Amino acid sequence: MNTENSGCLTGVARAIALVVVLPFRLLWDALAWCCRQLWRWVLAPIGRALGWLLHHLLVIPLRWLWEWVLAPIGRALGWLLHHLLAVPLRWLWEWILVPVGKALWWVVDLLLVTPLRLLWRYVLGPVCRVVGAALAWAWRVAGEISRAVGRAIRRLLWNAIGRPLAWVYRAVLTPVGHWLRRYVWAPVATVARAVRAAAREVRTALFGGPR
After folding, report:
1. How far, in Å, CA of 135 to CA of 143, rounded?
2. Over the stretch 82-116, which tens digit does the pLDDT of each residue have?
């Protein structure tokens, strides 16, 4: 493709693109111009007017109310609370409650805590340690005695019951079982097998064999 044909195709493509894009660009520019005019002549003046109204009808009255009413009332209430509540409570705490609490704690410590501490240190503590050690020793010894008694009972039961039962099983029941299996159950089983075979032969003779 030569340069002249390439230039023609480029010109045609640009012309088509311009025809397609031009309406959208005109619409975009028109909308932008309308928005600028709307902001300049409508929204901005309305915003400034609303700001002026809010400033003069809300901010200034609230500022005046805070400076000349609420702040003085707050300072007066703070002064009253400080002198009528905080100062008396602090004086009550420092000069009455704290000394009374210290005196009560001194009395409780002297009459209750110290005697109980001494009682535990010199009486109850040693007694509890001695009793605990004695109980631990008794528990250990009782365990040894219990194990010894258990071994003795197991040996007694074995000699009194287990050993005779083992002898009876070994000397009586085992030979009897062998004799019964050889001279009773084996002949009975042989007779039963013969009876079943004879029954099959009779059934075959009467009704014929399986088809």
Report:
1. 12
2. 988 889 999 999 899 999 999 999 999 899 989 99
Which two structure tokens, joined as six digits, stand for 160? 């009194």
Look-up of token digits 């503590």 = 125
pTM as predicted: 0.37
d(CA 12, CA 45): 48
> Please, what's the largest Cα pairwise distance for the chain?
133
Q: What is the pLDDT of residue 180?
A: 84
Report d(CA 138, CA 135) in Å as an integer.
5
Question: What is the C-alpha separation between 116 and 125, in angstroms, rounded?
Answer: 11
Helix (H, G, I), strand (E, B) or coil at 82: helix
What region does 208 belong to: left with phi over 0, alpha with psi -120 to 50, or beta? Answer: left
Query: Is the CA virtual torsion 94, 96, 99, 102 positive or negative?
Result: negative
The amino acid present at 196, given as its one-letter code, is R
Mark 138-177 as b/e (b = at least 16 C-beta within 10 Å).
Answer: eeeeeeeeeeeeeeeeeeeeeeeeeeeeeeeeeeeeeeee
Cα–Cα distance for residue pair 97/85, rounded to 1 Å = 16
Query: Per residue in 127-136, is it b (16+ CB within 10 Å) or e — as a string?
Result: eeeeeeeeee
Nearest Cα to 78, choosing from 88, 69, 86?
A: 86
